[in-house]
Amino acid sequence: MTWECACGVSNRDSKVKCSACGTPKGMVWTPEGFVRAEEAAAIPHDLVTVPFEFTGKVGEYFKIWIVNVSLTILTLGIYSAWAKVRKKRYFYGNTLLQNAPFEYLADPIKILKGRLIVVGVFVVYTLTTNFLPATEPLFGLLFFGIFPWVVVRALTFKTRNSSYRNIRFDFTASYGEAAGVFILKAIFVGVTFGLAYPFFAHSRSKFAMDHSSYGKTRFVFLAPVNSFYFIYFVAGLVGLGGVVALQVFLPLFSFFLPPTPAQQGPGLAPMIIALLAFGLVVLLVISYVKTETINVVWSNTSLGKNRFKSTLRFSQMLWLYLSNAVAILLSLGLLIPWASIRMARYRLDNLQLLPADDLDAFIAAEQEKVGAAGEEILDFFDFDMGI
Amino acid sequence: MMEVTASFYDGKTSQRKEVRLHFDPSGRLRIIGLENYPTYALSDIRISSRVGNTPRSIYLPGGAKCETLDNDTIDRMLGLQRSGRWQAFLHKLESRLGYVLLILIVTVIGIWGLVEYGIPALAKRVAYALPTSTDAALGREGLRVLDQVLLSPSDMEENRQRQLSVVFDNMTQGLPDDYNFRLEFRKSDRVGPNAFALPSGIIVVTDDLVLLAKHQNELKAILAHEIGHIIHRHALRSLLQNSVVALAIASVTGDITSITALSATLPTMLVQAKYSRGFEMEADQFALQYLRTHDIPRKHFADILSRLEKESGYNSETHNYLASHPATSERMKMFKGEE
Fold first, then answer.
1. Does A101 map to a domain?
2. Residue A273 lies in a domain
3. In which element (H, E) is residue B24 found?
4. What are the pLDDT digits (tens) for B12-60?
């Protein structure tokens, strides 16, 4: 027997709370907090879902992308800042909510400066650690220390350069608040040999959401920690199952391969197959964690009285990752635009706004401009904020 | 006279108003649908550049903004005003397949030129400009790591070692003395017969290689090849070249999702293999030059190469002497040449 939570996840009857979002059985979330489902029906607020739409087209973006890549190469990388802005403007401009587009407003010159700083730091780092390997831990320590600052600057740059209906998003957090997550809690993860990682992932998403706002209206992150533990628990089971399956099936599989001469040891073919199979298990685990994190984060975030709902499916995301990777490899990269567009479309097609407020009534806030170095550093290291 | 429909946002709240924007020939914009139909000089407003068919923003003084989907009318209006030409050019590039193909061809030629000539020439200049002391640490550290993971002390008799060191010292006489040439003997079952050059002048030969050689001159040829690597600063150059290639590929593929970005390692590996073949050719040239000036028949090099190739059939566990080298048959042809 199962019961279905308002977030769409079905739970075994023995569960008192939803395994995905933590909502107690028989309750729903309303702007007034958790209430019984019957009472919620009586609360007069407009629960019409407003879907996000993505209108980007592969053919159109392909040309923009080719020009971006080409001019980036021909200008030895200088154009990459303009390329990034045009790409982001294309994706933001094609993301619609209630028929109004989002807008990306970053200044390419600022991004270029940020990138030059990153490249400069990277060159200094590579040369120094190559010639003086003893300095490696020093750099590590330094980077650990400035990382919270980098995260704050990156999120600030990203949000302040995003707008919707001429109201900018915003992010305000101090170094201390970021250090609490990215230094203290990160150390805690190490001390507990990774057992606290879901706790850290939760704090990271909470930090990103709780300090963000749209105009003067704040985002509030409501997901309980155990929803993250649930994700990582299932991911662990998936990974374990995958490894066990590999142990069982790989030896069976090797019967079908031509035997290799004994003195050469294990041949190349079984090794490649084993590597590919292992890569598949890693991909399985990563896509599960990514998909469910996005779902939990967005389905448990409020903006004023409004809520969001994210309904990504793990199997779909896995298929997208896999087919994108294969298509990009086989097309020598030419299908990258196609892959980017279909990923964006799937993600936005599965995101909805549950409005409770008047969407015309958001108020703009005063804000200052920030540099792009932080965002460029995070981009460079491909750091995932879990949102 | 041109008109477009647009959404107006005052920048203070998220409220939307449907309006008409009326551009008159005298260069003024009038907003129809707002109180008092306000007008603005075109020189006071800023219009976002066109990206595909995404909505266009018209930023008004004071923070208000209009959004319209009528890109073509805006473009025509801007054309009459003769403004925003660079951005219009970008959109033109991005919207015609012909231009896209053209720029693709130019880019492919550009990449080829950079990989083939640009990056190697740049790395060469930088490497030669740096004093040899820069890579001394690189060499010392390299040998330390190799000793930890791959190599063990040599089993060769002291006498044989000393004798080879004398041969080596004679070979390096007359070369620029800012390199600290030094011959090191090591044993390694995993590497097999092999020799390699570390930056700053350290050359390592394995016991198996010395055993494999049937003539002193064969070892001399191999050593000359390794000295060539050092004289031409190959370690530093490959470090520089590979970093540039990795950075370049990362900057171009930066917009792929992280999981698929793995596929970017393939071109990096291909380019790096190509560069290392180039270095081997250069070292071969150096060895050839050495053999010629010392009246050593080239066939000695060809002999040991062919024996190495046979040997490598048994020892394929790790990278061997021939892995990153040009096809042996090609090299043997070069060294047999004028016998």
1. no
2. yes
3. strand B17-24
4. 899 999 999 988 878 888 898 888 888 898 888 889 988 988 999 999 9
- In this structure, whether the domain defined by B2-84 belongs to CATH 2.40.340.10 is answered with no
Among the partner-chain residues A67, A132, A164, the one whose CB lies closest to the CB of B93 is: A67
Q: A72 touching B, CB under 8 A? A: yes
Report how far residue A171's alpha carbon sits from residue A210's, in angstroms, rounded to the nearest whole number.
9
The DSSP result for B149-188, as a single string, is: HT-EE--S-HHHHHHHHHHHHHHHTTS-TTS--EEEEEE-
Q: How many CB atoms lie within 10 A of CB A360?
A: 13
User: For residue B58, how many C-alpha atoms fall within 13 Å in the half-sphere facing its CB?
Assistant: 30
Measured in angstroms, the CA of B240 and the nearest CA of chain A are apart by 9
What is the ipTM metric for this complex?
Answer: 0.76
Q: Is residue A214 part of a domain?
A: no
Q: Residue A285 is part of which domain span?
A: 236-256+269-298
A5 within domain boundaries: yes
Number of domains in chain A: 2
| Closest residue by Cα to residue A361 from A159, A214, A162, A146 | A214
Contacts of B10 (CB under 8 A, 6+ apart): A166, B63, B64
d(CA B298, nearest CA chain A) in Å? 32
- Name A4's bridge partners: A10
CA dihedral B288→B292→B295→B298, nearest 10 degrees, is 40
- Whether chain B has a CB inside 8 Å of the CB on A43: the answer is no
